[in-house]
Amino acid sequence: MSNPLDRHLEWLNQHTEEIIDAERPIIDPHHHLWPGESQYLLEDLWDDTSSGHNIKHTVFIECTQEFLTSGPDHLKPVGETIFVKKIADEAKKEPSKSQISGIVSHADMTLGEGINEVLDLHFQYGESLFKGIRHAGGWDPHENMRNSHHSPPKDMYLSDVFNQSLKILEEKDLVFEAWQYHHQINQVAEIADRNEELTIILNHFSGPIGIGPYEGKENEIFKVWRKDIKELSKRPNVLAKLGGLAMPVNGFKFHEQETPATSDQMVEKQKRYYLECIESFEPSRCMFESNFPVDKQSISYHVLWNFFKKISENFSEDEKNSMFYDCAKKAYSI
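Given the sequence above, the corresponding structure tokens read:
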């Protein structure tokens, strides 16, 4: 009997599409890697990035893998940087394939001054690939909603010690990846105001939730989300990642279909989020992201990038270049 991963790949392979605009160079600024039963390592990444689109570079984003198993707890996230750096070095042996050209790691941002020791080790092991930190702040008051993977307390982003750590990232010219839920967008605006020289990258449209107590309230949530996104976009130090809405938590239920999502289905269901965000931030501050393999629960890699190209079809060449390549290149110094 095939294993769950093989069965899922068989499900995904039920739908394929002809590649749109195949030569366009792309930086995928948001993917993960992990070993184990749900393995997604270099060959798996390359299977996706080589599936038709011209993916030149990628950026790894922390996902709590391969932490150190000994030593002080606050230094254990450095193990993930060591793990990914080895994979990135392995990728260099085949330069014709997409290269992992950035690593965004984790550090406990409630350490304040103590974060310096962690950052120094990330620099030591990640070298020039180390680009910044993500400390997810997704918190929800409902008992049946799961908080982000670092189990943040309520209003973590607004604490003085968190902002002390943000100042240190700013001093070291590192980016901060903000990942939280739709009702916390105002918190991102506040930390952007308090740290005007820090580049803050908004993940996954700030996570509009579509399950649990939010199921069936998509239009109501979108209306509030749009207002808050427009307000957040007034902060010039905030960039927006366009993607990550094919996760089950967003409530579109693509993963429950008999066949995987098509690019046209994605356009029908999600276009308004993308166009509102692009209009608010403008293409110069937007970058398309795969969020793979998490979004692979719902859609194939080549189909997802076809969706992005359909979303952007009415934009100019310069605007497309920004969203597919230039914004990420600048943000991560690739």
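The domain at 25-331 is CATH 3.20.20.140 (TIM Barrel). Try to locate this feature in the token string yourself.
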